[in-house]
Amino acid sequence: MSSQPDLHESSYDPSAYPASQDAYGMTEETKDLKREQFRTYLHSLIDNTIEQEDTIELVIPTTTNKHFFYFIGRLNPPHDGHIAALEALIHKANAAGSEPLILLGSGPGKLQTLDNPIPFSLKREFIESKLSEKEIGGMPIVPNMYHIEEMASPAGQVSAYVMGSLEDNINYDEITITHVAGGKDEDTTKLAFALNAARKTAESIQPGAQITASTFAVEAKPSASLSDQPMSATQVRKSVYNDYLEGKGFDEWNPQYKEFYGTMAHQIYDAILAPALGLKREQVLDYIKTGQLPKPSSESTGKKQRTSKKTGGNRKHRTHKNKKQSIYNKTVRRNKRRTLRKQ
């Protein structure tokens, strides 16, 4: 037999409330008494239950480390080297319990030019589609594992990313900020200012933490699409422009590129081609040879060219200020002549 006490023992007698008893004949005083007895019974039942159950301890872990990962690139257009870098970024961030930031550049003024032809929305759509073919722990990489933004101010956006995840009420022992970049030297050096800004932001919020800011370069490997050399965004763009100058279209585009871009190949091709359609053939050819963008015309920029106004000889152009001075001078001369005549 169990030696545990009956949890329902109390001074309240349930027999006083038989199910068949008619309560309508009770006085209000009796009803109040019964209600008080019932409340006392409930309290005693709760107290006895708490005494007999094991105490539940809540252990709240203290977070002492925080990790940030980000990527910055134009991706015009995205190629398999970019996808490899983004996959590495997400793997490293996921292992550290972090959501990485991906900044995608769209060129100055967000204009589609020969070297920045792919709009942000199309790049994001393609990247999400391509990453969904990759896996982490047997699960596909989905958009909620990372955060994509259109690049406007790299230093400001990376700093905001760090600031938004550092809480004032938690003192971190260690904070790491990692810029995952492509294997090109300029990818790590020309964007160092953003990494420095992020480090200074972390130092200002968590002055007592040990902060490490570093770059992790993902080396380009021979492309699955080209087999003998790493894929290049410049080569992909110029392949489209060469086809255009030779009178070819999408159907005759490099089949290896079409395979890589898959169901979105036509969209990528059309986006790359679009800026060339508004230029002269000589301008497109010059870009292919030199990589230099054609100078924008006054029509394309919407700015009117300034033309100098001829004023004739050495005469000054009559501005509002000059007119006032001229009137003043005439008035002075006229008054002087009048004074002389009176004399």
What does this molecule look like?
- The structure is a single chain.
- The protein is α/β, with parallel strands linked by helices.
- The chain folds into 3 domains: 14-52, no CATH class; 65-218, HUPs (Rossmann fold), CATH 3.40.50.620; 233-297.
- It has helices spanning 28-52, 80-95, 120-131, 154-165, 185-189, 192-205, 233-245, 255-261, 265-277, 281-290, 298-301, 320-342; strands at 65-73, 101-104, 135-136, 139-140, 147-150, 174-182, 210-218.
- The strands form 2 sheets. It has a 5-stranded parallel beta sheet with strand order 5-2-1-6-7, sandwiched between helices. It has a two-stranded antiparallel ribbon with strand order 3-4.
- A hairpin with a 2-residue loop joins strand 3 and strand 4 (139-140).
- Residues 1-29, 291-343 are annotated as: Disordered.
- Residues 1-11 have a biased composition (Basic and acidic residues).
- Residues 303-324, 331-343 have a biased composition (Basic residues).
